[in-house]
Design brief:
CATH topology of the largest domain: Tetracycline Repressor, domain 2
Structural class: mainly alpha
CATH class of the largest domain: Mainly Alpha
Distance between the termini: 44 Å
Number of helices: 15
Order of helices and strands: HHHHHHHHHHHHHHH
CATH superfamily of the largest domain: UbiA prenyltransferase
Oligomer: single chain
Strand content: under 5%
Shape: flat
Largest sheet: none
Length: 285
């Protein structure tokens, strides 16, 4: 049961969103929130992202059953029977995340948490995914709202550093996801989803990924000029260089094997950046 719930709620994605929110909270100038606020922030981001992940699977059963990567999801296998009652459960899950954030933290943080779930569930899943290759660009902004929620926990008047980190997440998501989409291009073509590699081909997508990653790395360096220190800069530059290197390899060989290496490089890039931000605050301050 636990593994099925983890799958349904896409808790790995939610965990990444939770980490970005907590890191944004740490690097935002201002008085540190108390333990209760921190716990509520972590819980609210995780559970709200989980509600959006569950809605995504509820809405996409027809697509998921066509793809090897998703055909074992619980609504597809029948482990959880798809019925309208699930929409109530998913809605209550979102309420369980947003309302405590509004009551314990503040309304601005709660709004960003809600918008993160809304962009993934409605803007990405319902509106754009089956209609436009821009799906992951616009819908991927859901990750940026987690950063803004973390910053708003410290100061509702969001400052330059968290705005720049939100831009980092905005640019990170397409490079991360398009690398996976190149590796799984045949699956997306089979399901009729217009992911970028299906629309323009793997080679051109690899070039676009590199251009987007260069924008990502440029944004990731900017917080250094607004107050973060050399440890953060080291994490941003080293992680960014590693990701750019794998993007270049993917241009030379846009095969599934190389594309998956680029996909995992994106995770290493994000981990290096977040770790650099945390260490910078803990060691420099």
């Amino acid at each position: 049961m636990f593994s099925q719930l983890t799958n349904l709620l896409k808790l790995r994605i939610g965990f990444i969103m939770m980490l970005t929110a907590l890191v944004a909270m740490m690097v935002t100038p201002g008085q540190s929130p108390g333990a209760i606020e921190i716990v509520v922030l972590a819980f609210a981001v995780l559970i709200s992202a989980g509600s959006a992940g569950a809605f995504n699977q509820y809405f996409e059963v027809d697509l998921d059953r066509l793809v090897a990567r998703t055909c074992t999801r619980p609504f597809v296998t029948g482990y959880f029977k798809k019925s309208p009652i699930w929409l109530l459960y998913i809605g209550l899950l979102l309420v369980a995340g947003v309302v405590p954030a509004a009551l314990v933290i503040n309304e601005i943080a709660a709004l960003h948490i809600f918008l993160g779930a809304f962009f993934y569930a409605i803007v990405y899943t319902v509106w754009l995914k089956r209609r436009s290759w821009m799906n992951i660009v616009i819908g991927g902004a859901s990750g940026s709202f987690a950063v803004l929620a973390g910053a708003a926990t410290v100061d509702p008047n969001i400052s330059a550093i968290p705005i720049l980190l939100a831009l980092v997440l905005f640019f990170w998501t397409p490079s991360h996801f398009w690398s996976l989409a190149i590796a799984k291009q045949a699956d997306y073509a089979k399901s009729g989803v217009p992911m970028l590699p299906v629309v323009v081909g793997n080679q051109r997508t690899a070039v676009i990924v590199l251009i987007n990653t260069l924008l990502l790395v440029g944004c990731s360096i900017m917080p250094y000029f607004y107050g973060l220190g050399w440890i953060y800069l080291l994490g941003a530059v080293s992680g960014g260089a590693f990701f750019i290197y794998h993007n270049c390899l993917m241009i030379r060989d846009p095969s599934p094997r190389v594309a998956m290496k680029s996909f995992f490089a994106s995770l290493i890039q994000l981990i290096a950046l977040l770790a650099g931000a945390v260490l910078d605050v803990l060691i420099i301050v």
